[in-house]
Each structure stands twice: as C-alpha cells, then as structure tokens.
Write a structure and sequence with these properties.
With 197 residues, the chain is of the alpha/beta class. The chain has a single domain, classed as Flavodoxin domain (Rossmann fold), CATH 3.40.50.360. The protein is 40% helix and 17% strand. It is built from six helices and eight strands. Strands 1, 2, 3, 4, 5 and 6 form a six-stranded parallel sheet that branches. Strands 7-8 form a two-stranded antiparallel sheet. The longest helix has 28 residues. It is globular. It starts with 8 loop residues before the first strand and ends with a helix.
Length: 197
C-alpha cells in the first residue's frame, strides 16, 4: 500500500488481449491525458502481457494465501495502486473474459480503491461492458466512478498507419473530469485503507 505522503499511483489496465485489439491505442491516448493532468504516478498494465491462466488458485483470494507464482506476481502489480482506469471494449454485450478473470484472481488488493472506465466500441461505445464490470468491482469493495469516457465508433478516430488515436476535445474534457474525481476518491480511500491496517 502507498504511504499517505507518497504520490498517488494509477494503474491503467488494458482489458482486451486479442492480437488485433485497439485497446493499446486507446490506452496511450488516455495516458497522454493523464500525464498532462499530473495527478498520478502512472503504470500501464496490459492483461495480454500479464497473461494469467483461467483462475486456478485452490483457496479463496480473500485469504491471500496464494499458491502460484503468477498470482503472486499479479498481486504485486495491483497492491501498490491507489486507483484504476480500465480500458475496455465490449464482447457480446459484456466484458472481456480476461478482465473478469483478472479481477477474480484477487480480493483484498482491490478493496477501497476507485476505478474509472474508458470504453470503446461501435454505437454503444462499450457501455455494456462497463455496466457489467461495475457490478463485479462493487463486490470487490471498489468505488466505480460515475464519470467515464465513452468512445463510440472509435475506429473513425484511429489512424491505423500511425496508430494514433484522437477522439477530439470533448473526450479529452471527459478524461480530465474523470481524473479529477479519481484523485479525490483515491485520496479519501487511501486514508481508509491506512486506518484499516
């Protein structure tokens, strides 16, 4: 856990693991906004690189008695974070299986931390993935924010040749509002985690 006087840490989690995914382009766009915002120390967490197997721990995650090295490594990535932003597409009106699996692997490491969402897709902009994931993160004692960034028809803003993603000023403002709220919640919930210890 971060100490009260250290910079807030924001993990930006790329939920899609598909080879042809656009999530990394969207994540890099968001990271540029977050760098300009300057409210957090930033970490990019790519679930394709983390490469967790299907949940396989023999004990419930709430006990933190992990048997496998991949779980211990995942815990070490998530534990220090004060807040999260999940970059997610929508698969069949729901969240990517890799995201649900990654959330299920841990328990206490997620507790009392805020989470924002940047969703992307077609006409719905990935919103059904966000709604599904909000139920899961709430069960993990996380605080899902009202503020979010929704990117419908995202491919219209993606230059495949350069990999540059630019959805425009309106989405930049939405990202800034979400980051402002993440700072407020992360500061408040950090104190709660310190008091709990």
């Amino acid at each position: 856990m971060s100490e009260p006087d250290t910079p807030l840490i924001l993990d930006v989690i790329v939920a899609s693991t598909r080879p042809a995914r656009a999530g990394l382009h969207v994540a890099h766009w968001f990271l540029e906004r977050a760098i300009d915002h300057a409210g957090f120390q930033l970490e990019l967490v790519d679930l394709a690189q983390v490469d967790l197997p299907t949940f396989d721990e023999p004990r419930h995650p709430k006990h933190r008695r992990y048997e496998y090295e991949h779980t211990k490594a995942w815990s070490a990535i998530i534990e220090p974070a004060d807040a999260f932003v999940i970059i997610t597409p929508e698969y069949n009106h729901g969240a990517p299986p890799a995201l649900i699996n990654a959330l299920d692997f841990l328990s206490r490491e997620w507790n009392y931390k805020p989470v924002g969402f940047v969703s992307y897709g077609g006409v719905s902009g990935g919103t059904r993935s966000v709604q599904m994931t909000k139920q899961i993160v709430s069960a993990l004692k996380m605080v899902p924010l009202f503020e979010s960034v929704t990117l419908p028809f995202f491919r219209e803003h993606l230059d495949l040749e350069s990999g540059r993603f630019d959805p425009g000023e309106l989405q930049e403002k939405a990202a800034t509002r979400m980051l402002d709220e993440l700072v407020r919640w992360a500061q408040a919930l950090r104190r709660m985690r310190v008091d709990e210890d």
